[in-house]
Design brief:
Nucleotidyltransferase, domain 5; two-stranded antiparallel ribbon; 6 strands; Type_II_PanK; ATP-binding; ATPase_NBD; Pantothenate kinase
Amino acid sequence: RDLSAIEFFPFLLCNVGTGCSILKVTSETEYERVSGTALGGGTFLGLCRLLTRVHTFREAMDLAEGGDARNVDMLVRDIYGEGEDRSGLKLPGDLTASFFARNIQQGRKKCPADDHDVCKALVVMIAQNLAQIAHLNAQVHGLRRVFFTGNFLRGNELAMRTIVYSMQRMPL
């Protein structure tokens, strides 16, 4: 079946494994690698093993499902406060301002983060950055369709939800 007849092409394909390769696909037989990043599943598991007691990807994902990244990450509201947009930038308060920065503010008690929270924050950090990199590549190459695939995303509902949410906040 000729897929080009249904205006399927072109699109950006982000294959997320240990790292991430980004391909511009223009037909069933034509594609080129246009970008990539060392950020991916290898980064996730490596950092999980360094920062927590987990040893396997499945253990890390199981912990992440019960975690809360807000115990680790600094949000826009942590900087500018609740309510009105004091930043003047119209940033939502729940937007991540800085990954793993919750404990850097002077005078603030250390946050009660545990391994669950650290694993969750790592998934969110990687997924949000992959979405940002994909979005920028789509803009550079004038593409409106972006697909994500790869072993890091296989059965990883948390990463997929984060990517979808992040991509929806950045219209193409």
